[in-house]
Amino acid sequence: MTPPKKRQRKKKRQSLYETTDETQSTPDETFRRDFFLPMVDTALRNLSDRFSRLKGVYDLYDFLFSEETMRQTIKNGKLHD
After folding, report:
1. Residue 49 domain-assigned?
2. 58: left (phi over 0), alpha (psi -120 to 50) or beta
3. For labelling alongside 27, which of 13, 52, 65, 80 has CA 20 to 30 A away?
C-alpha cells in the first residue's frame, strides 16, 4: 500500500492584479529545475563541442581505425598525404 500523496499548498494572492494562484514547488522539483536540468544541458553542450572538435582529427586519421582502409590507403599511395 502506498501512502497518500501530499497535497500541494497554494500560494495566496498578495494583490488583485495577480491572475492565477501559483503552487509551491516540491524540493525535488526545485532541485530538478534549478540544478539537475542546467547541469545536463551544460554536459550535453560540452560533449557536443568535444566531439565536433574530434571530428577533424578522426577525418584526418580515420584510416588507422580499420585494417581494410589502412591497406587501401597504403595501396593507393595516399599514406604520405
Report:
1. yes
2. alpha
3. 13
Any idea which residue has 577533424 for its cell?
56
Whether 15 is covered by a domain: the verdict is: no
In a domain, 51, yes or no: yes
Comparing C-alpha atoms, which of 63, 58, 59 is closest to residue 74?
63
pTM of full prediction above 0.70: no
Residue 68: domain span: 33-76
Q: For 13-49, how does the pLDDT look when each residue is reduced to its tens digit (9 = 90+)? A: 666 665 555 668 898 999 999 999 999 999 999 999 9
Cα separation, 56 vs 77, in Å, equals 21
